Amino acid sequence: MKATWEKIESNTVSINVEVDAEKVSESLDQAFKKVVAQVNVPGFRKGKVPRSIFEAKFGIESLYQDAIDIILPGAYSAAVQETGIQPVDRPEIDVTQFAKGQTFIFTAKVTVKPEVTLGAYNGVEVAKVSAEVTEEEIAAELERLQQRHAELNVVEEGAAENGDVTVIDFDGYVDGVAFEGGKAERYSLELGSGSFIPGFEEQVVGMQLGDFKDVEVTFPEGYQEESLAGKAAIFKVKLHELKRKTLPALDDEFAKDVSEFDTLEEYKKDLASKLQENKVKEATQAQEAEVISKVAEAATVEIPAAMVETEQNYMLQDFENRLRSQGMTLDLYYQFSGQNEQVLRDQMKGDAEKRVLNNLVLEAIAKAESIEVSEEDINEELASLSTAYNRPAEEIREIFTQNGNLENLTEDLLLRKAIKFLVSNSVAV
């Protein structure tokens, strides 16, 4: 087989492929075995028609399309490997010659991974992020834990306060007409949670038990139900019950209840250690994001639409998987949000373009700096996954291999090594 290629557009190439006549003959034999099992010829059982009689009756040309379907995938894959191009989309195939006793000639027009012209990437300045934990941050974390372990007590009299859990009836109207989904009875609402339309919860604050009140709000312009977006509405609200949080005291008993420590001071030290660990991780991630962003902005590359579309597909699949883990399907999400797949894909497009750009630039840096992934790197990653999932490393390797994801794992490790190189060569200011 012979394969040559030429660039016809910025990210598009044409591969010219010529396959030996012997391979054509083999594909015709395979096509005959497939087709003869499906045809009926008087005097012969199905699948038992001699080749000569079949060709006399139907013509050798009747086998050509099946033979092309058989030979083409392997020939194209071999041509890609031989030319060293990196396709990012399905090819457009044009068969120029296929016949018994002749070579098979075809061209494949395909979008390929673009060339990246790197800008400056050594010594990039990034913001220095402090990993110091303050007393205020420790106090805020303790307050959050207090809120989580607070008791709800029924309030017998008095006005609703921010932070209270209310039990209300409400009935909503736009232009004096009730709208679907705007009515509920004995609904539990925590004031200050921000879970209702802006301005609603603030107007419930101050209501007394048994009070009725007209709450006037305006739906946000980007509200998911388009018929209500930007509309003024009135909710007739009745307050049935009030429950108020009682925070536990911050003492040794509290520490025993929420942790394995006997004293509050011991717990605060452990809390400070964990907060610092998280801040170090967040600081590292912030520096990584900044240096990648600056290096990507300095690079020049024309991103093929096919690569962005593929990334959108990955993002959509990941989003669907996360929904399923929460007991929801993508179709249900569309119903609740009032969106559809195209709207969701459009929302993802900007992030998809950014991801593709970042990955292309990181790959180019890895190539420029001769950064490679060793077998030792792969083994270390598999060992880490083995610990995380409590499964043997060899079993995880086998799963990755069978699913064809070992190459993806290697690519991910390469990008991580490129990021580590960039951060280690950056300057914190």
Q: Helix proportion of residues, in percent?
A: 40-55%
Treating each run of at least 4 consecutive H or I residues as one helix, how many helices? Answer: 13
Q: In terms of structural class, how would the helical and strand content be classed?
A: alpha+beta
Query: Can you tell me the CATH class of the largest domain?
Result: Mainly Alpha
CATH topology of the largest domain: Trigger factor, domain 2
Strand percentage lies at: 15-25%
Tell me the number of structural domains.
3
Indicate the overall shape: extended
Number of strand segments: 11
Taking pLDDT < 50 over at least 5 consecutive residues as the criterion, the unreliable ranges are none
Largest sheet: 5 strands, antiparallel
Mean pLDDT: 92
How does this model look, in words?
The chain has 429 residues and is α+β, with helices and mostly antiparallel strands. The protein folds into three domains: 2-111, Alpha-Beta Plaits (2-Layer Sandwich); 151-246, Chitinase A, domain 3 (Roll), CATH 3.10.50; 264-428, Trigger factor, C-terminal domain (Trigger factor, domain 2, Orthogonal Bundle). The chain is 48% helix and 20% strand. It has helices at residues 21-36, 51-58, 64-83, 135-148, 200-204, 252-258, 264-298, 305-325, 330-337, 341-368, 375-389, 393-402, 406-424, and strands at 2-9, 12-19, 92-97, 104-111, 125-126, 151-154, 165-174, 177-190, 212-218, 232-246, 427-428. Strands 6, 7, 8, 9 and 10 form a five-stranded antiparallel beta sheet that branches. Strands 1-2-4-3 form a four-stranded antiparallel beta sheet. A hairpin with a 6-residue loop joins strand 3 and strand 4. Helix 4 crosses helix 7 (264-298).
